[in-house]
Amino acid sequence: MTLSECLKNISDLSDLDRRIIVKEVCNLSDTDLIIHKNRQLTDSECAKILSYADERRNGTPLAYILGHWGFRYSIFLTPPGVLVPRPDTEVLVESVLECSFSKQSLTVLDLCAGTGCIGISTALELCDKYPDMTVDLHLSDISPVAFDCFCENAKTLIHSSRIKVFTHIGDLFEPFENTKIRFDLILTNPPYIPSCVIPTLDKAVQSEPVLALDGGRDGLDIITRQIKAFPSHLEKDGIVFMETGYDQGARVSALFESAGFGNTEVIRDYGGNDRVVKASYK
Predict the structure, then answer these.
(1) Sign of the torsion formed by the C-alpha atoms of 250, 255, 261 and 267
(2) Three-class DSSP category at 272
(3) Which of 78, 128, 156, 209 shows the greatest Cβ crowding within 10 Å of its Cβ?
(4) Radius of gyration of the chain (CA)
(5) In sequence order, what are the residues at sequence separation of 6 or more whose Cβ sits closer than 8 angstroms to the Cβ of residue 194?
(6) Rounded Cα–Cα distance for residues 13 and 90 (Å)
(7) Residue 187: strand, helix, or coil
(8) What is the pLDDT of residues 109-143, one digit of tens each?
(9) CATH number of 66-281: 3.30.360.10, 1.40.20.10, 3.40.50.150, 2.110.10.10?
């Protein structure tokens, strides 16, 4: 079977899905897909492509099928049981990088870390932007699957002696309750989808862990718990960057202001929707 014939055999999938699957299995580039369309595939390649296509038809996220997914400038292990990194979440990392930091050493927490893509990407890019900066990066999640995942991703992706990684498992700030650790930056993508919306989501999204999606009746249960706890775990002038739902910016900003935060800002994603709330603690 040729590459062109194989693509036709899975034409019921989206063009993007087909291209990603074939590129992964055959180790091809976008250019290869065009100039080598008559390339003969091996029986093994054909079988794997068809198997991946069947999984995709059944609603399995591509990231779970491949076992990894891209975010910013890195590839993250993405096993079933962790939230799949999304392009809109990159807005959070970009927002951090737009800030100016006078400190040469930052203590950063990625809370509800999942794959660790937010914290790891932020630490790497901060150290690129500030050649003299050191970062103590803490990654924490309640999920054992997420814990194993971000431990492996940190080990694979972080090689700089200027980044020290600390990993934790527990419910929100539980791992830090008996410590004196305070954070300059807290980055978080908490569950924020209202419970009633979960059953209406795309089948692939419903394959992701409910623990990482379901934010309770109004989507703000975990967000509210986080905001109440933030002041006890932030340094003076510490900053929180929190991903939110597309229409939650105003409500989340109000929760931050009620908790004593100032300079709240709603940052929109590439589609013009609420995506990140930035809040400073004085």
Answers:
(1) negative
(2) coil
(3) 78
(4) 20
(5) 215, 216, 217, 218, 219
(6) 26
(7) strand
(8) 999 999 999 999 999 999 999 999 999 999 999 99
(9) 3.40.50.150
